[in-house]
Design a protein that fits this description.
- Helix 1 crosses helix 7 and helix 9 runs antiparallel to helix 10.
- With 187 residues, the chain is an all-alpha fold.
- The protein contains ten helices and no strands.
- It is 68% helix and 0% strand.
C-alpha cells in the first residue's frame, strides 16, 4: 500500500523511521522485518528498500533519529552546557510514556546481536563518545566514559527497568542529581 492514511500527514520517510524505532525498540533485530515496518508505515516494502537500502541501513537511521546528539553538541556550548543538554535529553520521562518503547530500548534490544552491536558501537563512538572526549579533552577519556556510563545506567534503570526510586523521582530532581554527579566526574 503506497497511500498515506487520511489521519497521518507525516512524510512517508518519517513514518518509516517512526515504525522502525518502534519495532526495533520492542523486538530483537533478528525478529524485525522490513515488510512489517512497511505495513506499519503504510508504504510499499520496495519504497523502504529504495529509501534506506537495507534493514541494517534503516537500523542505523532509526538509531540516529532516536537520539538528537547534534542538539547536545551544537555550538556555542560550554562543557557545562553539554552536560546540561545531555541531562535534559536523557533524564526526561517524556521520552516514553505509559510503558511505550523508547530509544534506550532500541539499544537494549539490539546490543546482544553481533551485527547490531557493532553498529551501536560505531555510531555511539562517532556520534557521542568521540565528541564528548573532544569537548572535555583526551586526558579526561576515562572520566568521560564513566560519566557516560553513569548517565546510560541511570536512564536504563529508570526508563527501561522501572527501578525505584529512579522510576518515580521527578524529572527535575533526577536531572539535578545526574548533572551534579557528571560535573563532579568531569570537573
Amino acid at each position: 500500500m503506497t497511500t498515506k492514511p487520511v489521519d497521518d500527514e507525516r512524510p512517508a520517510r518519517q513514518r518509516i523511521l517512526d515504525a522502525a524505532i518502534s519495532r526495533f525498540s520492542c523486538l530483537p533485530f533478528s525478529e524485525v522485518s522490513l515488510r512489517d515496518i512497511a505495513r506499519d508505515a503504510q508504504v510499499d516494502v520496495a519504497y523502504v528498500h529504495r529509501t534506506f537500502g537495507s534493514k541494517v541501513g534503516l537500523f542505523r537511521q532509526a538509531l540516529d533519529a532516536g537520539f538528537d546528539f547534534d542538539a547536545v553538541f551544537a555550538e556555542p556550548v560550554s562543557r557545562e552546557g553539554v552536560i546540561r543538554r545531555l541531562c535534559d535529553q536523557m533524564t526526561a520521562k517524556n521520552q516514553r510514556t505509559n510503558g511505550e518503547a523508547g530509544p534506550i530500548d532500541l539499544i537494549l534490544r539490539s546490543c546482544t546481536n553481533a551485527e547490531t552491536r557493532d553498529i551501536l558501537r560505531e555510531v555511539s563512538t562517532a556520534r557521542f563518545h568521540d565528541r564528548m572526549i573532544a569537548k572535555f579533552g583526551a586526558e579526561m577519556t576515562m572520566q568521560v566514559m564513566l560519566a557516560i556510563s553513569l548517565l546510560f545506567g541511570t536512564v536504563t534503570q529508570r526508563n527501561a527497568l522501572g527501578i525505584e526510586p529512579l522510576a518515580s523521582i521527578p524529572d527535575e530532581e533526577l536531572h539535578a542529581a545526574v548533572y551534579d554527579a557528571m560535573m563532579r566526574l568531569l570537573a
